Amino acid sequence: MPPTPSPSPGAPGRPPPERRTDDPSAVPSSAVGREFAFEKRHFDFIVGLIHQLAGIALAPHKLEMVYARLARRLRELRIKDFDAYCALLESERGAEEVGFLVNALTTNLTAFFRESHHFDHLAEEVLPELRARHADVPRPRLRLWSAGCSSGQEPYTLAMVLASSIPDLRRWDARILATDIDTHMVETARRGLYPAEAATGIPPALRERFTRRVRENGDTRTAMDDQLKRLITVKPLNLLEPWPMKGPFDAIFCRNVLIYFDRPGRTQVIEKFSRLLSHGGFLYLGHSESLYGVSSSFRQVGPTIYRRV
Length: 309
Hints:
This protein is α/β, with parallel strands linked by helices. Helices cover 37% and strands 19% of the residues. It has helices at 40-54, 63-77, 82-90, 94-105, 117-133, 153-165, 183-191, 204-210, 226-229, 263-276; strands at residues 141-147, 173-180, 193-195, 211-216, 219-224, 232-236, 249-254, 277-285, 298-302, 305-308.
């Protein structure tokens, strides 16, 4: 990944010294029975660090989620408590550990053809328009970007839509970029191998055409076809750090990602999307996301579907 930005004013430092154990406010009531003591000072330090590194804003109600995910990491590292873990994050060895921290705290909920109206719009509106526009071009260019691709179901869905909607796709210079901040998810997307039940969201005709069943370690898995893999390039990327790609993109899917950013972070990312989209290019957001009050560079053309103006 590109270098981490320099800490902004107010960036987190080492958690303050441990408070007296007889202080009744030191540990929340929900902490009873925890394996590791996890106080607000630990949570505040980690929240500040993840915001600095990835622009992710974690609300106070996420405390239990943060504890649960990082407690597993403490066990793996055989670290005795969160004081020691926070010290590790600040040490010279911490540069490697912050990658595990980001991976642990980013949410990776995804599915094939999730929010299917977006893929219907791509197949029925966007791709026919592009085909008509480039009818006389010998090798027309087509670029899609799955920004925040998680484990890869979204870019593979895009690839299925392209391959089934453009009969002469081999004539096209078509590519799908898939990026995610979580390096474990990036590797999963590259492999294109999923639990068998994950394929139930794929329409039967496309499932038959573009996937196959394989056995791995005694389990039945769903493997993506090589023709889909050839369309996709998967890379790690932090959306709040410099972007190496130049565009332009015909459509960008960034769904259920912006909800984790604060307002300045959302504004920054949306404006960069605008600059990388072609004139009239499309931006697809998640079901709970909106550009209202964030950007004037787009007009809404459908449910969470925006077109660059």
